[in-house]
Inverse folding.
């Protein structure tokens, strides 16, 4: 199998998978190194495929052309992370990422892709188990989320809930 055929097979596998697939998993399947798979993924992204890297591997973004995607600016402490994320997913939203503007490193973006309480709970558990520090600690709680919602009503419910929690600063 040549490199082009391997990349076609990678896309085919990602299109049919709902779970992330690791570079090591692909490497084992195709009898190549993990570095070759990482390079393949980079080439596929450059070709226009929306391949997302998660802590458990790669996943192909599913197109949802009906979803509204907007950014919100919020500010809160580390103890309110779970409440904030629940407010979004409980009202039909998906937390695509978190963005902070660091004074030294500039814009830092972390993909989250949380769309249910299960996802949020897994994320929170992973943060605790690894003793990771939330990005909001770098900016005194100020951060941006890109969120998706199925319609204007869902988006408004998310905004209302975040306002009630007193953490929403602005939205687009």
């Amino acid at each position: 199998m040549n490199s082009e055929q391997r990349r076609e097979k990678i896309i085919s596998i990602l299109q049919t998978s709902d779970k992330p697939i690791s570079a090591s998993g692909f490497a084992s399947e195709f009898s190549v190194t993990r570095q070759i798979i990482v390079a393949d993924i980079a080439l596929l992204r450059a070709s226009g495929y929306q391949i997302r890297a998660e802590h458990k591997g790669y996943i192909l973004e599913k197109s949802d052309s009906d979803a509204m995607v907007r950014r919100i600016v919020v500010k809160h402490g580390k103890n309110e992370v779970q409440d904030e994320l629940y407010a979004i997913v409980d009202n039909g939203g998906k937390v695509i990422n978190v963005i902070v503007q660091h004074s030294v490193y500039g814009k830092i973006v972390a993909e989250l892709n949380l769309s249910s309480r299960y996802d949020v709970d897994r994320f929170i558990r992973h943060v605790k188990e690894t003793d990771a520090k939330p990005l909001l600690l770098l900016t005194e709680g100020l951060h941006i989320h890109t969120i998706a919602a199925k319609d204007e009503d869902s988006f408004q419910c998310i905004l209302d809930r975040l306002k009630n929690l007193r953490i929403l600063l602005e939205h687009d």
In short: Strands lie at 51-54, 57-60, 68-75, 93-102, 106-114, 142-149, 168-171.
